[in-house]
Records
---
Amino acid sequence: MGRVAELADVSVRTLHHYDEIGLVRPSARTVAGYRAYSAGDVERLREVLAYRRLGFGLREVAELVDDPSIDAVAHLRRLRGLLLERRDRADAMAAAIDRELEARARGLKVTPQEQLEMLGARLYDAIGGAYTVTRRTDPRIAAQIWDAIGDAQTVLNVGAGTGSYEPADRDVTAVEPSAVMRGQRPPGSAPCLAAAAESLPFEDQSFDVAMAVSTVHHWRNPIAGLREMRRVAHRVVVLTFDTDEPGWQDRFWLTRDYLPEFATVLAGFPSLAGMTDTIGARAEPVPIPWDCSDGLFEAYWRRPKAYLEEHVRRAVSVWTRVGPQAEQRAVRSLSADLDSGRWTERNTTLTDLDTADLGLRLLTT
């Protein structure tokens, strides 16, 4: 334990505390009976310390490292995204300070409003590379979802993430198992409980509507989660993906030409027919605008260069799921085809389209 503490630059007392609370428990023993860390223990400790140094509390760290849907590679990618975001924020803040220093050196007066703008809204505008910025509510998709919600007053948002598409004029309760996502919900957003879709902590028919937006594919048991939504609400609204159509992966040029591994990502995903039958829903297409502001996987179908950007890919779970080799191969191939003009030749029909049907479906009961 002493050697591990030295290598990790923490105290032995810290490691003892992690052991006592069950956060990182050494699973091996030396011949002399002292506690020792296996390779798996060290990997878990690395994740714990990384999240701690990013400012997460011990309870949040425990939820993160115990998430069974996230493997070591996914943790590394998540940590990298968080570190890049912090770096981008620091760089933007330093640039804002430099601008103010330059203004003061020239004898220009900087008003309190300008000071706040430099480090407030304008700062966040400058952080285009932060992965959280790419996932925003698109008003056209929102209009379709909110129209399906109708006149419901009490709304449960299941797998709520950072709160996109929550109607601001309703009584919303959110459920989100990920501490990372809950920590990114903006001030003033709906109260959010730590719970999973498969086991919602509510009585039967507690809400007018239960909604779930681009989250079902993350659930351990999508059908069980949908049944729970049906149990706790009078109506259900779900934005999901259709894999029933033969050759569905060929609808989108990115999966057709560059990322065939996408099909394996959704290999165990329930059929659209199975989901609609489970909750007694009807399905309608959700067209994706060419300038969609929600950076979901298909959002940049008419803006292919966006997929070459690291921060764009990090905001979409597909890239983590397919693995780094497939990701980098796809990026290299797409970059080469954009440079050569081959992508344009293959996709000339897209330039005249304002929206595209790439498989997004809205299920409503």
Note: The longest helix spans residues 72-105.
---
Amino acid sequence: MSPPTPRLRRALLVLTTALAALLCALAPLPAAADSQADTDPADTARAAGDGPADWTARPAGGGADRDARPYVYLEGTPGTALQDRLAVTNSGRAPLTVRLRGDGRAGAWIGFAADTVTVPARTRAEVPLALTVPPDAVPGDASGEVVADDGDEEIRVPVRVRIGGPTLAALTVEDVEISGGTIRYALVNRGNAMLEPRLAVRADGMFGTLLDRPERPLPLELAPGRRVERTEPWPDAPALDAVTVRLRVTAPGGARDEAEASATYLPVAPAVGGGLLVLGGLALLGSGAYRRRRTRRGDPEPPGAESADDRQPTTETRPLVKAGPLVKAGAES
């Protein structure tokens, strides 16, 4: 049997490589499956963004972690003390010490049974907390956070407080500006209720509507007294037009406001060239009108200027004398 030719050897090599790749793709990966089966629930929580790998802090209650409350929610009237609990879970193999504090408006009203808590390994501890609503608190919504810090990382737990009494939902849109393809504005909560604003945008030009975005919710919660500066992209803004942009904001509870701003869009290069042409034409027209006016009035030429006659060459002429016969006068004899 004759040995295979070089072309046949290359074909066999390619075929073998393709078969090996196909077998590797179809074969299961036991190592990966085993590692997935042995995943620690704490690692799953960390991947979901629930905090550090070996500990968590959440509002107490609900039993399983997935049923825990997303934030502390309390209701009361001014001057009352409201109570709740914070659950700190240590899933590590060593004791955990965390410090607790409040942050934000409602966070400043919170006091803890202990500001420093040590939680043994594989243990969950519940820390009582009390929130005292100030007697002069304005009815409405207030927000803050409970902060748990182990020295290396911290977890923030949102706090929402509904203060009893008459509420006022008031919202304003201010400082509207148009800059190229961007609309800038500010939202201000002028009432005492937490607001979830909605925004509608409309832009009209010289020949009709250029932009009409229907009302949509904005991804923010506006606490009482809070001011937020935002931008609205307008990628297809006109290159040449005079536009008026109107913003309308609303929120549950009857809050509503509108504001507008105007802008003129001009291409930079054509505008500069056109301006130079206009200035040049005006200069020519002004110079011609000035000369015609001086000619009609007969104004003297300025010093040093020569008239048309002065510029013509001159030739001096003298009268011709006709020569006659010379007559010599003398005495007759």
Note: Confidence is low (pLDDT under 50) at residues 28-49, 312-333.
---
Amino acid sequence: MLGAAEEARRHLGENPDPALAAELEQVRQAAQRGAGLVRQLLAYARQQVLEPRLVPLNTAVSEMARMLRPLLGRAIALELELDSPGRLVRIDPSQLDRVLMNTAMNARQAMPEGGRLTLATSRALLLQPEPAMPEPIPAGRWTVLEVRDTGHGIPPEILPRIFEPFFTSRPQQGGTGMGLATVHGIVRQSGGYIAVESRPGQGTRIRILLPRTEAPAAGPPSPPAASLPTDRAQAEPAPAEAPMAAPAGGGPLLLVEDEAPLRRLAERTLRRAGWPVLAAEDAEAALALAAESPPALLVSDVMMLGAMDGPALARALRARNPRLPVLLVSGYAPSVVEEGLSDQGLRFLAKPYTAAELTAAVADLADVAGASCGTPQS
């Protein structure tokens, strides 16, 4: 839907009919909202692609606090209680921001007349497992992120269900029931745990325990993301893709996608960007094409019909050309993809993607892999 909306908008030209352009934008935004919901489900199911790095927790919390203050409103006071500086956690910075945003917005809903929201960091040493809701916390050394509010609290009959996907106690306010489910999925996929305590009329306390990480022996820690992550549903339309140079004499780009509409859209996008493209619907057809014309770069879906998936196809082609750059595309993140992300010649692109994101990913991969550039085909 997103690709078709982009193509239709492109055909309207530089001065489209305003009414038709507005209708296409409605289609695009509706598809983006659907994509956002799927991403939340993937987070709940712990099947999203993460890019963890060492993040100074206090810095990340302070940065997010500046963004949260205007969203909370004047009636809610935001306070920080930060532990000693230098505490590091290994987590995807954008997902840490999402955890903070979702828990803070949930607290705001619990304080319609105002109150106090506290973000705190600390350390914990558990010598034995700690009983907690929704699940016990194992013994160990933990870095703790705490979100406390002075709201109306959670009724005891609802408390065990707050992490269920699509469960919400605020259907009239438009709640989707995915906020805390998403938080739980992100934290567990990052190796952490959540503990929730709440009493009606006495507020709610959410503790997020992440594995304690010591500073590396050399080099500064990776900085946290400084900007507020937003779902693409709320983002501006991506700009049109920029032309890229196809590799001179290096062979075509091999595109493998078993869904025909997606394959046609991706092929048109890449051809416009200057790449000669060979398109296949499955791994077997791709291998046959590659035998006739060795590819300079592979773009493949991860899950496909047939006996061979995208990673297996990449391994087969790399047996012939070990330096073949590979872009794997998928709507979720099986472990075989995550394990390969450290490979300098392999990249992952999450579905749904825009035309600009596809061409940018291919261009970046070609640059990193050292593909020589020539004149784009007309």
Note: Confidence is low (pLDDT under 50) at residues 217-249, 334-342, 371-378.
---
Amino acid sequence: MDPADDLIKDPYRVYQRLRSTSPVHPIAGPDGTTAWLVTRYDHVRQALLDPRLSLDKRHSAAGYTGFALPPALDANLLNMDPPDHTRIRRLVSRAFTPSRIQQLREPIGKTADQLLRALGEHGHTDLIASYAAPLSITVICDLLGVPDRHRVDFRGWTDALIAPDPAHPAATRDAIAAMLGFFTTLLADKRHQPADDLLSDLTSVREGGDALSEDELMSLAFLILLAGFENTVHLIGNAALTLLQHPEQMALVREDPTRLPSAIEELARLEGPALLAIRRFAIEDLVLGGVTVPAGQTVLLSLAAANRDPERFKNPDRLDIGRDHTGHLALGLGIHYCLGATLARTEAEIALQTLLARFPDLQLADVEPQWRPSLRSRSLTALPVSY
């Protein structure tokens, strides 16, 4: 079967059907070869922790290429297993500690406030273009140390990678070339004139003799920017839309902003931006949910389907910011758990709190939300509102 078209149009209904028939389904993967889609919570959780499922493309029997990134961008954490993954994650994880993210709360709040003040007291706007995207770009660029003169429309690059347009096949190639040139210049500048930022730290980071190779450094910078922008902008956008569609839940958050951290977890469970975890490859024949997956084949773990599994969450399609959301898989699990999870949560919390406080009469515009066509991510192309 190949439910790809339906997965783009209405992923949750398709996932519900697949969960009810079998926990693991053969489908046509992104590269045209067979992939195995896992949809039930227990099996997705089990697979996320299974070392027999590798992120290393060398274990793909079909020669999986994915984005077909050049080596300078491909040596990143999304393609690695231990021990390389362990080494690189250890070297960079100090930049994402809760204490360091706590230091970013004030500048994130100031940026959010400035963006909303620029909109005026009343009017109409697209919250993705005017708020979520520029906020996310500013935060990740400040963290990395990207000077204002080098800040470009990362949204165009990420769109070309995550949701390529079949009518413009060269767009992905052009985006990859642009990002490679961007980081080559930026890292050269950091070596020549280091500053108090993450990229400057990464150019010289060492621990017990370990250091990042040139390709690892470039690839890590690419991944942090791509994931830091892409995931956060859509977490904010999806969360804002969902609250606006559930005014009774939004009222609870307005009345008691201390509920926002819990609300973020529930919003991530219900409408998180990652539909699928990064693809994995079986390094040996293995049984998953009673289904045998042959060695070398691709396994796709549906985080979105797992997070709406009624066997794990009661009334899973309902937004309930007071529910026990512990154990949701929106940010992954195990050694590949989202490196920037604390930053994403903090940024989304501040973005929503500032937005709701600034515009007490915020409403959706009278148009249907438009979702970006992608099997990988759940993300809005625009979020028109009035205020």
Note: Residues 214-245 form the longest helix (32 residues).
